Amino acid sequence: MTVESDNQPRPTGEIPIGPQLRANGPRGLPGSAGGRQRRQPVWPVAAGGRRWLRLLWLAVGLLALLAVWVLLGMRWRAVTNPLFIAMVGVMPFLAVGPLLVGLLGAWWSRNVSLRVAAAVTLVAFVYTTSPVDAVLGCRADGAVDSGADNILTVYTANVWFEPPGGQPDQIGAAIAAEDPDIVFLQEVQWDFLTELQADPRLDRYVHRTTDIPGMPIQDLVWSKWPIEVASVDDLANARFVQATINTPSGQLVATPIHLQAPLGQTSINNWLAQHRLLAEVDRSVPRIMAGDFNATRDHQPFRSLLRTGWTDAHEIKGCGLDTTWPSDGRLPVPVMRLDHVLVTDHFEVLDLRLGDPGGSDHLPVISTLRFNPAE
């Protein structure tokens, strides 16, 4: 068989091909397999060595550890470090950025094991935000018959009246605009209360715990309906106010809540004890607990409280990712929901919304309820 010589003249730029390669065809090309050139991935793992792959494994591993830690802190064991408590408070938002980076990196790397690890990590984070109902956005049940005797609206706000805190005129205007039947306010100061009591727009609230001797002003209840009796007890260095209100449908107990902020070891211990004591509150009578719990739906003490049978208005309406603090501009948007409306089984939550802060660092929560005292 005659083989053409490679010394023959050829067009300029043509690459010489040896006899063996010409005989064997494309299978002899370096780096080829099965006659086809391997496709180079766009991710720099294959193109630039193993460094990026190691970094991706590290990122996904750290996310997995964070998921496990969050699960422990949110589900089974209360964290007691102030920094960790704050981190749990901003979950799942804290994990969104790193989680997306890890997932996209794992997908583009085309590494099956890394993809599986990233998927497991994603499932863990989704589990921490369950029930899924709580992350789909608020849902209203449509028009509410506000004229019915068993329909009532509650308004709760931490007004924080220390400069540059809530302004009495703005808070008064917000309450008047919402026209709730029962008002819960926390962190009220004398100057704020004096101005609020003089606001003619709020004259409809003729029944006030602040008018009862011996009752604190910091956590108050104002009502359109008569307050039959009110009391205050100690709640592990917090106030536990109870106001029995005679509504057209029957009696209910209104309890404004302001638990300590878990900023130091002493306050953390009080915060944990306060949640444990709230879990022992009698739920056999119609009761509304509303206010600043200084805990989010992801903190284990608050989750344990809900498991005793309380209904969280935000959760039941699918508003679990609403946030109420801080609303005073120190951050671009509020990052935690510290304010809650909890009710016993005697109430059906019809509507839930956030209001105008009126200069406070907390957004108020307004909820419309159907009262079924026979439940």
Strand-residue proportion: 15-25%
Fraction in helix: 25-40%
Sum up the overall morphology in one term.
Answer: elongated
N-end to C-end Cα span: 101 Å
Secondary structural class: alpha+beta
Number of strands: 14
On the 0 to 100 scale, the average pLDDT is: 81
Give the low-pLDDT segments.
Answer: 1-6, 20-34, 39-49
What does this structure look like?
This protein is of the alpha+beta class. The chain is 33% helix and 21% strand. The protein is built from 11 helices and 14 strands. The chain has helices at 19-24, 44-48, 51-76, 82-89, 93-109, 112-128, 168-178, 190-197, 265-278, 300-307, 313-316; strands spanning 32-33, 36-37, 151-158, 182-186, 207-208, 220-223, 227-234, 239-247, 250-258, 287-292, 311-312, 339-343, 347-354, 365-371. The strands form 3 sheets. Strands 5-6-4-3-14-13 form a 6-stranded mixed β-sheet. The protein has a 6-stranded mixed β-sheet with strand order 7-8-9-10-12-11. The chain has a two-stranded antiparallel ribbon with strand order 1-2. A hairpin with a 2-residue loop joins β1 (32-33) and β2. The protein is elongated, with a radius of gyration of 31 Å. The N and C termini lie far apart (101 Å). Residues 1-6, 20-34 and 39-49 have low confidence and may be disordered.
